[in-house]
From TrEMBL:
Gene name for this UniProt entry: argS
GO molecular function: arginine-tRNA ligase activity; ATP binding
Protein name listed in UniProt: Arginine--tRNA ligase
Localization per record: Cytoplasm
Protein source organism: Halocatena salina
CC annotations in GO: cytoplasm
Domain of life from the UniProt record: Archaea
Position of sequence motif 'HIGH' region: 130-140
GO biological process: arginyl-tRNA aminoacylation
Family stated for the protein in its record: Belongs to the class-I aminoacyl-tRNA synthetase family.
EC code: 6.1.1.19
Length: 607
């Protein structure tokens, strides 16, 4: 309902500005949603008069007054009672029937409230993407949850989403690992705890390399690296023994990943790792096309690179705006960055495999390729997209959904240095904290019940905490604070939803909104109804920003507003407004459930 009002206002405003010959004035968020508690502002407002002031050479307040009159002249807007001005703003006040229509819409549409039914476009959504032979770490938690929730948001907004877990299972690091494994020759330890053992070997290699570097033994460092390169070259060339060993690494890793994804309640449609694009010859096609078409150039040491010029990167994600230099000019060697597609020994690189992945995905017919990868890879992805444009992939939209780092309060981590914060460790700690919170909140719970509730609270904590901050910001995951029932936390939101659900479970029946339209509402009732009306606009904002953080903030706002009503208003034993407040609570629980479905936060009957 609120979305319809907003769109109607924007439509009228656009028509007015065209009549005023001011249609070119840029407007960012042309209609704002105000806090309902400020009666003077109205629920909706537009600051467009401030943007028009310089062009028209008039005070914003005068422009706002004329605009408000122009709105009134165009006729009434269903749902709007009055249109007024204040300090250059035009304020739109809702009518009394707005609440009833909002509640009717929510209870009629149910889980479809805020959902776009028509398919907007097809999109391949890449997220999580851990490396094999290592446990998932805390950074993968943020990537995985962020990607899963954003995928749900886009699906709700009409995208046909395919979720791809692009496993890191190829590269020279596995040459190093295969070498270390053969040197250690301890199969029993691998069979006992395969991933822990492989991580130990990986870190052993890192320590050995670091020790040689500190001693200034550069020749020995290079020899060590060459050994790993040789093993990887043999693996990529199809060495049967190394391939069989690598497959054991992959299988053990997949089993460990599956266990973590089960705890996070995350699924994928495809699991194509980097190796798929090598073994299925997609990388060979990329290399041949780049060289044969003059897109790549050979370096002095025999590698092949695609030159990336500075002006290649402008608007490279947008197929309608991207403009790249296709043909390489070796004479301009000082003026470009090199995107390596073949190393001097003939092996592939991340870039080769990522280009091959793009080629494969485009053949599947996707309109957009989205990559959930950390902000530190921003420059790389810009170059990757530019290289893809040069190779002729000019119609697809590329989107790098970058995000900031996440750490625990005790600090950052380094896999090679041995400071690894695993995803399992974080999940275990959150589960333990959640169990303590549940037992403290209700010491009478049976052990099995407490465990079930703690599992739901822990999942809600992890999911909420990883989307609560704007995705581009760095964040610290304080597991103890995040499991609290107070503050800006997932359990706080869950607790509010459980309160609402329990009210409904105690009620005999829930009346239809139309049957209680004449029952009185006070300010707390209205505040909650307005909050419910905002939900579709919040999903729209998440889509626009490729960021679920506005949805997390919305859940906090909804929980606070509902808790305010819960403490200030009677519901089941209200003398006059019982039935209408039951309708309001039913709509609130419906929105909680719908938003929880998207965020993956469990709805709990008891906490």
């Amino acid at each position: 309902m609120l979305q319809v009002l907003r769109d109607h206002i924007i439509e009228d405003m656009t028509a007015i500005l065209e009549e005023w010959e001011c249609a070119e004035v840029a407007t960012t968020d042309p209609v704002e949603i105000n806090e309902y508690t400020d009666e003077e502002k109205g629920l909706l407002a537009t600051p467009v008069a401030f943007q028009l002031a310089s062009e028209l050479g008039r005070p914003p307040a005068d422009i706002a007054s004329d605009l408000a009159e122009a709105f009134r002249d165009r006729g009434p807007i269903e749902g709007i009672d009055t249109i007024e001005t204040a300090g250059g703003y035009i304020n739109f006040h809702i009518d009394e029937a707005f609440t009833t229509r909002t509640l009717e819409q929510i209870l009629e549409e149910g889980s479809d409230y805020g959902v776009v039914e028509d398919t907007v476009e097809s999109a391949l959504f890449e997220f999580s993407s851990p490396n094999i032979a290592k446990p998932m770490h805390i950074g993968h938690l943020r990537n995985t949850v962020l990607g899963d929730v954003l995928g749900n948001v886009l699906a709700a907004r009409g995208y046909d989403i395919v979720r791809d877990n692009h496993i890191g299972d190829w590269g020279v690091q596995f040459g190093h690992l295969l070498y270390e494994f053969e040197q250690a020759d301890d199969t029993d330890r691998f069979e006992e705890k395969p991933i822990d053992y492989l991580l130990e070997l990986y870190q052993r290699y890192g320590r050995q390399e670091a020790k040689l570097e500190e001693a200034g033994r550069e020749d020995d460092v290079e020899q060590l690296r060459d050994t790993g390169r040789e093993y990887f070259a043999a693996l990529e060339s199809g060495d049967a023994e190394l391939r069989a060993l690598w497959e054991r690494f992959s299988e053990a890793s997949r089993n460990r990943f599956d266990a973590t994804y089960d705890r996070l309640d995350v699924d994928f449609d495809t699991w194509h790792g980097e190796s798929f694009y090598v073994t299925e010859s997609w990388t060979s096609q990329i290399r041949e096309a780049a060289i044969d078409d003059g897109i790549a150039v050979e370096t002095e040491d025999g590698a092949y690179v695609i030159p990336i010029y500075d002006d290649d990167l402008a608007d490279v994600e947008d197929p309608t705006q991207a403009d790249v230099r296709v043909a390489a000019d070796p004479a301009d060697s000082d003026d470009y960055e090199t995107f390596v597609i073949t190393k001097r020994d003939g092996t592939t690189t991340y870039g080769t495999r990522d280009l091959a992945t793009i080629a494969y995905r485009i053949e599947q017919g996707y309109d957009e390729l989205l990559y959930v990868v950390g902000s530190e890879q921003r420059e790389y992805f810009q170059q990757l997209f530019a290289a893809a444009r040069k190779l002729g992939y000019t119609d697809v939209r590329f989107t790098h959904v970058d995000y900031g780092l996440i750490d625990l309060p005790e600090g950052s981590m380094s896999t090679r240095a041995g400071r690894l914060i695993t995803a399992e460790d974080v999940l275990d700690q959150v589960r333990e904290n959640a169990r303590s919170v549940v037992e403290e909140n209700d010491p009478t719970l049976a052990d099995e019940t407490a465990s079930e509730i703690a599992a739901g609270v822990a999942l809600g904590t992890v999911r909420f905490e990883n989307i609560a901050k704007r995705r581009t910001k760095n964040t610290t995951f304080d597991t103890e604070q995040a499991t609290s029932l107070e503050g800006d936390t997932g359990p706080y939101v869950q607790y509010a939803a459980t309160r609402g659900l329990n009210i409904l479970l105690e009620a005999d029946e829930i009346p239809a909104p139309s049957a209680v339209a004449d029952q009185p509402f006070n300010e707390f009732d209205h505040q909650l109804a307005v909050e419910l009306a905002r939900y579709p606009l919040v999903l729209e904002r998440c889509e626009e920003r490729y960021d679920p953080a506005p949805l997390a903030q919305y859940l906090l706002d909804l929980a606070r507003t509902f808790n305010k009503l819960y403490h200030e208003n009677r519901v089941l034993d209200a003398s006059q407004a019982r039935d209408r407040r039951l309708v309001l609570v039913a709509a609130t629980v419906e929105v909680f459930e719908t938003a929880f479905e998207i965020t993956g936060i469990p709805m709990l009957r008891k906490m």
